[in-house]
Amino acid sequence: MLEFDFWTILFSIINILVLFLFLKKFLFGRVNAIMEERARLVENDINKAKEDSQQAEMLLKEYQTSMSGAKEEARKLIMEAQKNANAQSVAITQQAQEEASRIIESTRQELALERERSIASAQNQIVSLAMDAAEKVIGKKIDDEANRAIMDDFLNEEE
Amino acid sequence: MGEELVSQLENEVVFTIPIDFPVVGPIAIHESVVVTWGIMAVIMIAVLLMTRNLKIVPGKAQSLLEILVNFVYKFFEGNTGPAGRRYVPYLSTVLLLMGVSNMIGLVGFGIKPPTKDINVTAAYALLSIILIEAATFRGNGGLKGFLKSFAKPIPVMLPINIMEVVIRPLSLCMRLFGNVLGAFVVMKLIEHVCGLIIPMVFSMYFDVFDGAIQAYVFVFLTSLFVGEGLEEENHKLRHSTAAAQ
Q1: Single pTM value for the model
Q2: Number of structural domains chain B divides into
Q3: Alpha-carbon gap: A36 to the closest alpha carbon of chain B (Å)
Q4: ipTM of the complex in this document
């Protein structure tokens, strides 16, 4: 009952060590491996989610800046167009005014010219009439050149 | 009756390896070793079945297995400190094998617990003291620290600490052996005196409760001694994790 047996001790030690190695590999090794893998997976997921949200935030910021840039651009374009339109309208108005005043001026000149011309022709006729009348009165042909000059002088004095 | 009891206490030779080894002669394989083989085979098959197809998303059986594994880690680390995590697989192996060995008498068929053989408990105790001293060696960072640890906490303790190297495994071995043998003897006596039903009640105490308690006490003390040897490493570990936070 209380006898020590070397072989039993040795075999018992071997038994314990064999079972230990077996459990270490197949129980603790496998279970720990799967738990570590799970932990790693969860960590990866969390990291990925963090990264994604960061990226989304960045995109949003980018979008916002581009949007405000576009707004600015549009505002600038409209302003420029307005300025252009204003300038054009001013130019057109000015041109029209110039044209109008030019036309008025030329018309006025033409009118003046016409009036002068008609006055001149009227004078001519009046002179001829007066000379005809004088001829009839005197009964004789009046020297054309000299008398015409006298008549012209007379008419000019009348004016 | 006396003769029958004595024959029950006998650790029979099951077979002898029929080779005449030089010097030692033929090796006799005792009952306790053979029963341990049987227990090991059952444990191995059960473990292989349980860990056969582990998944990232665990089923019920796998969840239970993971809870158990985490539980033994937590339990032993409570005694050994964080540095003792590497010894948990060994300590759990001892707990499992010893627990089943203590209770194997319940199966019947005249199977006797292997741990009632003092050679088996001596094997457990030998491995325990090797583990304890190895942990002390490693925990104190080499030979110098290991030798110094014998003069702790005060140099007067030196002889007592040296004696402990022998006393610890001896007490572990004898406690287990005595308890299992005692329970075995008392159970045999009760069975001899009163039939079939009453021994079942006592068996609950002597086989199940005492068997579990003894296995628990054995690994509890071993892990406690290991933790004692790892004190310095644990201190450093806790310090470094505290600094990291």
Answers
A1: 0.71
A2: 1
A3: 10
A4: 0.85
